[in-house]
Design brief:
It is built from 13 helices and 25 strands.
């Protein structure tokens, strides 16, 4: 094959550099490479990124077909593994790198890449842990390597070792090539200047219960399209979580700091955050006291047993002919002693609690975790850990949670839910802290069209919008209505490890092809010229903003050499990435 040359085509709005065949060549591309089917949910930003990747691949003779769908349909397709490549994104659930890593265990509901499933269940891996005192090399299937490694991390109490193990886990994950990280998220939104004290967390949630609304209009905030779930145990999306934190309460919640500059953890339906008692077996016991004025929205008392039932429901999954919830976030209860026994007995209706969570009285909840976890209180503030009334009888489809009759436990209750139109919530006067809820109602219209959202914002039908185009950012970025903050998250392309396009390749060959396809994505161009929202190119899956005991941030130590070089090539030297990618692809496909 003739040597390639690099041409600048930035004026075409494509990738900044393009490697083509030599001048005068009639070669058009890798005709023997299967075309790539790429799916994304309806949104102008996602479409722009998809079209840029499609155009970039086309420049290198690779065909990509684009398909968009509504959020709910897209999410179902991706989760079921009925795709080749898909737009994806992940925001941390709590402030720890494990929140990015444990989602990829074999049975996780968030394992959209199908690692360790289907044909890939027989793939073998190897990761050398011998440089970490007390650990040895792991080899075997995904379940025998990655799943085991995540188990090590969750059982390791030494912080230094734990972080070293997490770097090894990211290395193993990225070696599969199923993740092509593009950028680190930022959170941008427009907020009417007469609407104040709206709080946002690095996890992506928006909080409106303390907002001051001086517009003379109802507080209407557009976050996204119709959510798949509002049921806090079933939901696994940021928009659904933003609704859930208003409707459902837990032991712990986030509240504004004293200076009003951010959010911090504080007791919610518990009276305090108890110190754990560490047993001789290393397990930690937390004893929570439920507030005497804790009530559901129907006025009935919230008891410790309600937490026992709610957590066991959220963690349950189907065993034999017994139906469990099988929730995406069920694995988040792994930290609680007894989680591993869930598969050994039936779910709903069991005489004993599966999790080691006990109501020793109506107002006393005893929780035993497998060890002391630094992020346990953050878990207690997570929607899946909230309390529901009569949890075992709520069903498994989440339909109960979008009815106006739904009994809630948080600051608000549902006034109305209309699919593809809006969710309206109203103050729950039985909530223990209802006196400090500033807005009697909040309306969340469902919309994912940036142009339509901006129009409604400009005429003040919407007082806040959570999505916008780069052109809108350019217009508003000097205005006090424009808000931006960092988020603990990564936008990426996910590849189905069992996709037909990798048929005929060995496991190692498919991994190398996916790596080459990842290198061809011009992350710098996307963040600067396509999205333009202040994102930074991502070098790995774990997002920026998480500290590392070795110094600096976790991302400063990523990459196979743990030197911060990552797995995406050098965003500043795209030409070099192209050369590497083309060299790899030329091994497996002929450029005609």
């Amino acid at each position: 094959m003739k040597k390639t040359q690099v041409l600048t085509l930035s004026m075409l709005g494509l990738a900044s550099v393009v490697a083509l065949g030599s001048c005068g060549s009639s070669k058009t591309g890798y005709a023997d490479m299967p075309s790539i089917d790429y799916i994304f949910n309806t949104n102008s930003g996602h479409q722009a990124i998809a079209e840029n990747i499609q155009a970039t691949y086309k420049n290198y003779g690779i065909k990509m077909n684009l398909s968009q769908d509504t959020w709910n349909n897209f999410l179902t397709t991706r989760k079921q593994g009925n795709y080749t490549a898909a737009r994806n994104g992940w925001l941390a659930d709590y402030n720890d790198p494990i929140s990015f890593l444990d989602m990829w265990i074999t049975d996780s509901g968030n394992n959209d890449c199908q690692l360790g499933r289907g044909d890939a269940a027989n793939y073998t891996y190897e990761i050398d842990l011998s440089s970490i005192d007390g650990y040895e090399k792991l080899s075997g299937t995904w379940a025998q390597t990655y799943d085991v490694l995540i188990g090590y991390i969750k059982a390791e109490s030494n912080t230094t070792k734990r972080y070293k193990l997490m770097h090894k886990a990211e290395t193993l994950l990225m070696s599969t090539g199923v993740i092509s990280p593009i950028y680190n998220y930022v959170d941008n939104w427009l907020q009417n200047s007469n609407l104040t004290d709206v709080y946002a967390s690095p996890l992506g949630y928006k909080y409106f219960q303390w907002a001051e609304n001086n517009t003379g209009k109802d507080l209407t905030a557009c976050l996204a399209s119709t959510p798949t779930y509002v049921d806090p145990a079933l939901n696994s999306a940021v928009d659904g979580a933003s609704y859930a934190v208003h409707l459902f309460g837990g032991l712990v919640r986030y509240v504004p700091t004293a200076d009003g500059t951010g959010l911090e953890l504080a007791p919610d339906l518990a009276t305090s955050l108890p110190e754990p008692v560490i047993g001789t077996d290393g397990k930690a016991t937390y004893t929570f006291t439920i507030r005497s004025d804790a009530k559901f929205s129907d006025g009935t008392a919230i008891t410790a047993q309600d937490f026992v039932d709610s957590w066991n429901r959220a963690a349950s999954y189907s065993v034999g002919n017994v139906t469990g919830l099988d929730a995406d976030y069920g694995y988040m209860f792994e930290v609680i002693d007894g989680y591993d026994s869930l598969s050994e007995t039936s779910a709903a209706g069991a005489e004993r609690s599966f999790l080691n969570v006990t109501a020793t009285s109506d107002d006393t909840l005893q929780v035993v975790t497998t060890m002391e976890y630094p992020y346990f209180y953050e878990l207690c503030a997570f929607p899946a850990y909230t309390v529901l009334k009569d949890a075992w009888n709520l069903g498994t489809d989440g339909a109960w949670a979008i009815k106006s009759s739904a009994v809630t436990s948080g600051a608000y209750k549902i006034k109305s839910f209309t699919k593809d139109t809006s969710l309206v919530i109203e103050q729950n006067t039985n909530y223990w802290d209802s006196a400090n809820v500033k807005n009697a109602t909040v309306t969340f219209p469902f919309n994912d069209d940036d142009s339509s959202m901006l129009g409604s914002y400009m005429n003040q039908s919407y007082l806040l919008i959570d999505s916008m185009s780069k052109e809108t950012v350019a217009t508003y970025k000097t205005s006090d209505e424009y808000h931006v903050m960092g988020q603990l998250g990564t936008y990426y392309v996910s590849w189905n490890i069992n996709a037909d396009m990798f048929d005929g390749l060995t496991q190692a060959e498919a991994e190398e092809v996916r790596y080459a396809l990842s290198l061809l994505i011009d992350r710098k161009y996307i963040t600067e010229s396509v999205t333009g929202l202040g994102e930074t190119p991502s070098t790995g899956f774990v997002g920026a903003g998480l500290s590392d005991p070795a110094g600096g941030e976790f991302v400063d130590h990523n990459g196979a050499a743990e030197d911060g070089s990552g797995w995406t090539g050098n965003a500043e030297d795209y030409a070099s990435n192209v050369v590497t990618a083309r060299t790899i692809l030329d091994k497996y496909y002929k450029y005609y």
